[in-house]
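Table S5 (text form). Sequence records supplied for joint modeling of the two-component complex.
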Amino acid sequence: MARKFIHIDMDCFYAAVEMRDNPAYRNVPIAIGGRSEYRGVVSTCNYIARKYGVRSAMPTAHAKRLCPELVLVPGRMPVYADISKQIRGIFARYTDKIEPLSLDEAYLDVSDSDMMHGSATLIANDIRKAIFNETGLTASAGVAPCKFVAKIASDENKPNGLCVVSPQHLDEFVRELPLGKIPGVGKVTLQKLNHLGLFTCDDVRRYPFDQLVKRFGKFGPVIWDRSHAIDPRSLNLTRERKSVGVERTLSQDIQTPDECLSMIDSLFPKLQERLRKASPSQRIHTQGIKLKFSDFQLTTVEHRFPLLDKHYFQQLLDEAMARRNNRGIRLIGLHVGLPTQRDTEQLSLPFPELESSC
Amino acid sequence: MKFSISREKFLQPLQLVSGAVERRHTLPILSNVLIKVSEGALWLTGTDLEVELISSVSLEGDYQEGEITVPAKKLFDIVRGLSEQSDIIFEVDANKAVVRAGRGRYTLSTLSASDYPNLEDWEGEVEFELSRADLKRLIDSTHFSMAQQDVRYYLNGMSLETEEKTVRTVATDGHRLALCRLHYDNINLPARQVIIPRKGVLEITRLIEEDDKLLKVQIGSNHIRIFSTDFIFTSKLVDGRFPDYRRVLPKGGDKEVNASKDVLKSAFSRAAILSNEKFRGVRLNLASGELKITANNPEQEEAEEIVEVDYQGDELEIGFNVAYLIDVLNSIHSDKVKISLADSNSSALIEDAEDDSALYVIMPMRL
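The corresponding structure-token record, covering 725 residues in total, follows.
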């Protein structure tokens, strides 16, 4: 039986929420993110801002240069999370096979659904309508026989659009696709592919498989598969968190270990809080620290460690600081790796005092 | 300093105190045994600064009082290697200790007794007596559940608790817990809880026989001491708070299984052979009247055992680390074991159906 996937993506989610809740934002370019004085980055912006070239993950200072009248709006994560929950509730009316990718994006597998006469296209449109009626926000959807094509399709007719790639048109759709559209192909990989004269999936189809593996390692077969419209992945319904972390870009570079330690002091409770949510047993697999130096070079130190321990960060910091070479520090992050399924097979006794002992 | 003694009388206390002596220690004197002759008795002391063992034996022949330290392992090996009926003369001459037996003569290096570390003075705050068999039972029922080199250092030991007429031991590594409690009608103890470090616990089990001879236990703020007829054992305590076992004793395990311990133990031991060597998981499928045990490993080998058990109730599938199950079954004395379960994510409570002094809690594995 043919598989049917829907990828739903909210249209500039955070910005849309702000425009919904505050009429003053509706006709001006806005961006959600930290302020440029504090070296923030844009997390989302509306379509008016996009016309100026403003993009997600762009430093706010840069965005301001492109669009001087850009209005910066601080994010309201709890509000976004609530709406996200509401939207997931809508998905759940259609299927229980839901793989959320983030607050504003999810895959649905409706292969077995007999709602709407089994039509994924009708389901996708019904979901978009329900989202708009119940939240006042628009979503775009892609429908396809495999996951990655559904994701690419949802971007085709944005905003507030639908794109259906039927099994008959799958091959044709993928053949024309620029390689940069394949999820996982980033700037660097794309450059390497272009350098080999590969620009579209059709180009890859005519390129020798073993050469691709040789140049791209284990990602090679993935590029080859996707270019042939092959994506055997089903929904990942039990997405396991692999790590939790907190980080902060400093408003001004810091220099001394003492300054770093006081940053650790202020970040640590947040990490504890996140770990408590992600892993009630508080067991961890690794503990690590991340520093970004004034020249934007990143360094991380991570070691195996069984329980979150604030003092251990000091040791990790010493190791990371040894790589500083007199550069300032602009970002500091703390993270822990969580035990994988294999490690957590053995359950722990529910001692309250062991769970909060760090 | 000088004394004479039979090999047999010397060997026993020497072996006893050698247990506390670290082989490779940064402090050279800690690999020595302290030998002291005073008031007609020979006193031997071994320590690693955490655990101290003193043993004594009365002297029959001539002696000269004094004290000295000599390498423990070497002295022990020499005495052990002598023929059984040997008589030994031990003498300190200048800076050397000389051991003579028959036509053999061994000259050992010495270090001054005054440099030998003493545990600081302390006072006993709680004292009680119990038989060696009882203390052995308290420890043997629980010690296998102690953690080993856990960062939660207070789990690397055994909790010993006194409360009115009860002496209780608890050990847990966070995945399983073992508890044993004995009641005495003739005592009334203050409420007190201490943690004996792992090494000390294992040392005590090595030292005591299972008999009715009485031991005196003395607990201070940082130490515990056990007086026996043939030794005095002292251990530092772990400074930390032991987790409260009451919080993890399962309640509402409505599925009760009664079975023969020996039958279960041998079935688990066989199934264990084909379990994953690292994770040691076995799957238990419980149905009316029978328990199916299955195990498999990455080599795709599989074990299946069906055991008759006394059980009426819903079916249940639950996984466990088979080593934990075998540890518990090994420490149960009677052949009747009772297992209470709730669901596949909740702990199992295991008890000896004929003796409620000990109980065992094991968390399941997700398989």
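Note: The first strand of chain A starts at residue 5 and ends at 10.
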